[in-house]
């Protein structure tokens, strides 16, 4: 649940990160990686194959959080977090919320800050994660034998008048996580199919809908993806995007989505897609590759061309003299942690764009460009305020 405090600083387009951002990142590097990183070690079946480690980064932010609402705003409880503590979904959701995560805060303690100050910053992040939640987005991290499953889901806000949309996305991720444990080595779309059927039979969710993207990261660098809707994923190699998923939509701003429709609404033409509509792709990953999973809060606001720029500048900083005390493994750990946070932070700044920056000579958000092409009558400009979640996985070879 990543919050971004208001910062008078624009997202870069010219291939540079300002000295302000560089200073911020240098300060952020002082935070212990254990606060915001999860490592999953994958053991190979065969002794002569490489042993892969996936260093994970997680960052997320609700749209109902500063700067889009007042810091004093009281957000009513939503999702399963504050429900029956003995309920299996509630327990699992709270476990996911306890995972170390960033909030997209592109500023940290003052330059004179000490360890105590850094501890206070980390404690505030934890507190704010609980206060604001992940909005209608949710996520899953699950080790399954020698595989690692990652998943993201974005609850469809159009259900708000009827139900809490976050219930569907949280339950979908829960059932996906539990199903992956029951059916080891299953492909993500098979897991999603079984998980969706379980959700349809789960009385704890009466209605709702969500997009979904997931990946199984295998012991030998094999990666199997499933994607339905306008959340998505990308693979980076040497600071370049070698593949990015295409959004699936019925029409402008209406993604493909899994849904659970009450009987009284089944004749009303409510959108109802299935896991069979999902795109599936398989890749062989290499050491140093970066897998990025994201909800549309990122892809609607931050041009994909900015992602390699941010990646390159972060790597330059990690390889600079100021960070010479870090070994290569520590650099990969820090990269995964910081990169997810940076993407969320810059995505949140892009949400605040008006579309009038630099008298129209500046870059436009992807959502504005798509609106101009497919729905010009609305005259939409600037960024789209939305929940945003980013997960990163950096492929490393264990010694």
From TrEMBL:
Source domain of life: Eukaryota
Keyword tRNA processing among record annotations: no
Cofactors required: Mg(2+); Mn(2+)
Catalytic activity of the protein: O-phospho-L-threonyl-[protein] + H2O = L-threonyl-[protein] + phosphate; O-phospho-L-seryl-[protein] + H2O = L-seryl-[protein] + phosphate
Any one Gene Ontology molecular-function term assigned to this protein's record: metal ion binding
EC number, UniProt record: 3.1.3.16
Record-annotated PPM-type phosphatase domain positions: 118-395
Alphabetical keyword list: Hydrolase, Magnesium, Manganese, Metal-binding, Protein phosphatase
Region of interest (Disordered), residue spans: 103-122
Sequence ranges of Polar residues compositional bias: 108-120
Key word Translocase present: no
SMART domains: PP2Cc (SM00332)
Family statement drawn from the similarity comment of this UniProt entry: Belongs to the PP2C family.
Name of protein: Protein phosphatase
